[in-house]
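Deviations from the work plan: none for this task. Representative record:
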Amino acid sequence: MSENRTVWEVFIQSKNGLAHKHVGNVHAEDKIMALENARELYTRRNEGSCIWVVKSKDIISSESEDGEAFFDPSNDKMYRHPTFYTMPEGSKHI
Amino acid sequence: MQNNILTMTEEKFQIRIDKEEKIEPKDWMPEGYRKHLIRQISQHAHSEIIGMQPEGNWISRAPSLRAKMILLAKVQDEAGHGLYLYSACETLGISRQELVSQLHSGKAKYSSIFNYPTLSWADMGAIGWLVDGAAIVNQVSLQRTSFGPYSRGMVKICKEESFHQRQGYEIMAQMAKGTSEQKAMAQDALNRFWWPSIMMFGPNDSDSPRTGNAMKWKIKRKTNDELRQEFIDKTVNQAEIIGLTIPDKDLKWNEQRQHYDFGEMDWDEFWNVVNGNGPCNKQRLNHHKKAHDDGQWVREAAKSYAQKQELIAN
């Protein structure tokens, strides 16, 4: 019997209203065990109000070495930033 | 040609390191870098896990409910720290199972300090104050290590670790101002743990062949001797405040260096313990193996249960 358990990535929402943030992973056989292990490992000091776990193998990641090419389409579109535009002198609240 | 390409890739890697960029698991890295990290991180992880044993020894005999709850929480933290580190190590392509079997075969080491017995309650004080204190000095510097997962693990561990040192120092301070027997126990614990604690930083830089690469690749940010000096400089005053004496007759403030000078460490003893001949080496490993074997049915049951649940769900 293989000893290698499923690896789950753990995301914690530290307070109501905030986004869940990745904190690490746990090994577990099933989703309930994954949630309980995540609670024991990552929230021993009131770090969380909600936990997500997701199987590591289900996460699709871009390659950091291809980062430049992958994100290239956004490089030449400075007009997406508010600082690109010239505002008439004296205009306020815009 | 092949060699040229490799040299160029290694140069590019070194440029990233020199720019203080963090290396992530999927990035290209020299084989030596990966190997060094697996050895260092797994040794660190195993130390956290084996380190639970000398303290676990006193959970059932803690002198008060408060002390017992604190010790339980501390030992649970050590388990957590071990798991953070195993996770970081696994990102380098080695499985948890392989890491554990390397520990059991003796291929992977853990910190020698945990091969000493814990003879009295004062040892809980000495371990928290000195052993965790030394670990903190090392871990604070490792927060800046070049490997991303290791660095993030260290940040988390450092946040949790300072309660460990403070609870140990509190025990020592209380015993040092207790009855004369209690004070003697505290002094005895300091006597036994001082030298092994300062040897936790490893051999002198002149005898540490791997330090060169580890510094070049910024896996380590300070050398063994630098970290040791930092720890001693911090700790001398803490001992004075609670009226205990560090067992080193050569310990003396050096005005010119602005550091404490200290005596020769007994490296023969250090290597003897590293090589398996310390007072508790066999006991520690056997206990770990037994716990692992005894847990086999739990792992199997959990797996069967998960498979059954999946069948029901589908």
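The mean pLDDT of chain A is 89.
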